[in-house]
Write a structure and sequence with these properties.
This protein is an alpha/beta fold. The protein folds into two domains: about 40-190 and about 325-340, Rossmann fold (3-Layer(aba) Sandwich), CATH 3.40.50; about 195-320, Rossmann fold (3-Layer(aba) Sandwich), CATH 3.40.50. The chain has twelve helices and eight strands. The chain has helices at about 1-30, 95-100, 100-110, 125-135, 140-150, 165-175, 195-210, 235-245, 260-270, 290-295, 300-310, 325-340, and strands spanning about 80-90, 115-120, 155-160, 185-190, 220-225, 250-255, 275-280, 310-315. Strands 2-1-3-4 form a four-stranded parallel β-sheet, sandwiched between helices. Helix 6 links the parallel strand 3 and strand 4 (about 185-190). The protein is elongated and about 60 Å long.
C-alpha cells in the first residue's frame, strides 16, 4: 500500500513539473514577442526582410518595426544617453521601404554603432494601414519622442529623410519644441537638399545611377513631389546644378507644384528632338507616386502622356534611398548634428 501511494505521489509530482515547464516555455515565447524598451538596433528577430511577401504576416502581430543591426555593433561601447531618431514620411510598399528608408537607417547605424537608432513615420495614414494590414507597428513622432524620453535618452538627434525643409519638415521642428524639457538637448538634422554641397552630391548620385541611358537621344526625367512651401525652389536649383555640371539632357519636374510635366516637355523640346524618355522618381521611396502618377497605365500618368507624344518611355523603379551616395549624405548630416550635441 505504501509503494502504491509513493508511486502515485511521484507520478503526480512529475506531471506538475511537466506542466510548470510547459508554462515557462509559453511565457518565454510570449515574452519574445512583446514590445521592450531595449536598444532597437539590437532587437532584430522581427525585422521584415526584402524577400517577404506584401503582407509579411510572419513579421509578428504586436511588434514595432525595428532597424537592422549595424555590421559591427560591438565596434564601440553603446552610449545609452544619446539616441538618433530617423524620421520618414513612410510607405506601405514593404519591400521598397526596406530598400530605401531601411537602407538609410542601416547606413546611419553602421556609421554610428555606439548610438541607438529608432524609426518614426510622419504619415499617420500609413502607420494605421501597416498596423491593420500587416500587424506592423511604427511609432509616429510623438510616440517615438515619448518612448525615448521614458527610456532615459537625454541627448537626441532627429534626422529626417525628407528632401527639403518643407511643410512636413517644419511640422517635425514644431513637434520637437514641445519636448525641449524632456531631453537635455535635441538637434534636428538637415534634410537631403539644404547646402550647395548637397545639390552637387545629389546631382552626381542621380546621374551616376542613370549614366547607361545617357546616349544623346534620351531625355532623363526625374519626378519630384512638389510643395506649396518656399522650399519648392530646390527643384529649380537642382535643375540648375545639373545644367552647370553639363547634364543638359536631365530634367526635373513635380507632381503637385512647379515645374510641371508641361514645363519639362517644353524644356525637352527646346533642347533637341529626343526619341526616348527615361522616368525616375526624385523621391526617397518608390511608392504610390512612382507607381501610379509616374508609371501608371491611366491616361494622365507621366508615362502615358509622354507615350502619347511619340516618345519611347522607360520607367525606373528606384527610390533615392537605394543609392549609396544618397545614404551617405544623410549620414553626413547626422554627423553634423551629433557635433552640435557636444
Amino acid at each position: 500500500m505504501k509503494k502504491r501511494t509513493r508511486a502515485v505521489f511521484v507520478c503526480t509530482l512529475m506531471t506538475a513539473l511537466c506542466m510548470a515547464g510547459c508554462g515557462n516555455t509559453a511565457d518565454t515565447a510570449a515574452g519574445a514577442g512583446s514590445r521592450t524598451s531595449e536598444n532597437v538596433i539590437e532587437s532584430q528577430t522581427k525585422v521584415p526582410k526584402e524577400e517577404k511577401t506584401e503582407t509579411q504576416k510572419d513579421v509578428g502581430e504586436s511588434l514595432p518595426e525595428t532597424i537592422p543591426a549595424p555590421k559591427n555593433p560591438e565596434a564601440k561601447e553603446k552610449n545609452s544617453d544619446t539616441g538618433i531618431l530617423a524620421v520618414s514620411f513612410g510607405t506601405s510598399y514593404n519591400d521598397n521601404r526596406e530598400k530605401t528608408i531601411g537602407a538609410i537607417e542601416r547606413a546611419i547605424g553602421d556609421a554610428f554603432p555606439e548610438y541607438e537608432v529608432r524609426r518614426a513615420f510622419t504619415a499617420q495614414m500609413i502607420i494605421d494601414k501597416l498596423k491593420k494590414r500587416d500587424g506592423l507597428e511604427v511609432d509616429n513622432v510623438t510616440q517615438a519622442l515619448e518612448r525615448m524620453a521614458a527610456d532615459g535618452i537625454e541627448n537626441l538627434v532627429v534626422q529626417p529623410t525628407h528632401l527639403m525643409d518643407g511643410l512636413e519638415y517644419q511640422d517635425v521642428v514644431e513637434e520637437l519644441k514641445k519636448y525641449e524639457n524632456s531631453f537635455k538637448k535635441i538637434v534636428m538634422g538637415k534634410p537631403l537638399l539644404m547646402e550647395d554641397d548637397d545639390f552637387t552630391a545629389v546631382s552626381k548620385a542621380i546621374t551616376d545611377a542613370t549614366k547607361s541611358y545617357d546616349d544623346g537621344e534620351t531625355a532623363i526625367v526625374y519626378m519630384g513631389h512638389g510643395t506649396e512651401a518656399d522650399s519648392n525652389q530646390i527643384y529649380g536649383k537642382l535643375q540648375e546644378t545639373l545644367k552647370n555640371e553639363g547634364f543638359e539632357n536631365y530634367f526635373i519636374g513635380t507632381v503637385e507644384a512647379e515645374p510641371t510635366l508641361e514645363d519639362v516637355i517644353r524644356s525637352m523640346e527646346d533642347k533637341k528632338a529626343y526619341k526616348n524618355v527615361v522616368l525616375a522618381p526624385l523621391m526617397v521611396v518608390c511608392g504610390d507616386h512612382a507607381n501610379n502618377d509616374m508609371a501608371g497605365e491611366e491616361e494622365d500618368s507621366w508615362k502615358s502622356i509622354l507615350t502619347a507624344k511619340g516618345y519611347q518611355v522607360e520607367c525606373l523603379f528606384q527610390g533615392l534611398g537605394e543609392l549609396k551616395e544618397i545614404q551617405e549624405i544623410y549620414v553626413n548630416h547626422v554627423k553634423e548634428a551629433l557635433g552640435e550635441l557636444e
